[in-house]
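Record 1 of the preview.
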Amino acid sequence: TWKWVVGPMFLYLCERLVRFWRSQQKVVITKVVIHPFKTIELQMMKKGFKMEVGQYIFVKCPAVSKLEWHPFTLTSAPEEDYFSIHVRIVGDWTEGLFNACGCDKQEFQEAWKLPKIAVDGPFGTASEDVFSYETVMLVGAGIGVTPFASVLKSVWYKYCHDATNLKLKKIYFYWLCRDTHAFEWFADLLQSLEAQMQERNNAEFLSYNIYLTGWDESQATHFVMHHEEEKDVITGLKQKTLYGRPNWENEFKTIAGQHPGSRIGVFLCGPEALADTLNKQSISNSEADPRGVHFIFNKENF
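->
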């Protein structure tokens, strides 16, 4: 038995040593941005840190807890000179981080007063394969929208610098959430991308749909009254917010009809039930003919 145990245990110990060494490297918080609805953005720098789109890191703040490590998806793009995470204040640890960063104070916080942060990572996810396809469907549910902040930012940087070498030609983005207010920072990102794409006369590059799943009668009345306005009253985007849940069968058939004979990457960050639905639709809408349309399903869960 020891022959089978020693090898894996040695590899495990090596991995733990590497992770310990990485977690001891100095991390500098360069900026703390307070977003609406108690969400903060931490922009950080670390020597030798290299990331890909959609990856995540483990974060420890000794000022809050000396033992707790928490995973956060990176919301910055690899092209930026810093890496960032968005933290929504929903528990004791996040509340402690909020206070440690001085976000509960009105006055300006000096950089040297910010807490020390330990970072382990980054670690890979399925989202890294986005640039392997010409057409992709990105589906984010609730907090699962965070990996696609990194993806969309990186797409924009690549598009600005050298669009000719960018294999990705079309993005269909779906955002399902009960309440967009909790993620206003992401709506701001979409607004920026929307404006920049229009300036470059390529508004068709990104097609997005926002579905508000937790709506009540007053919201429905508000929607009817303002539906004819140029911009959506909830997100401020030209694309109107939709209510309820998408008809995935119709969505897949429409996209398959617009991109015949292509491989389409389907990327989900969300609950298991939605993953089952998208996986079944990917299989049923893929053709048996190798020259036909094929949906390749990729998922990650929180």
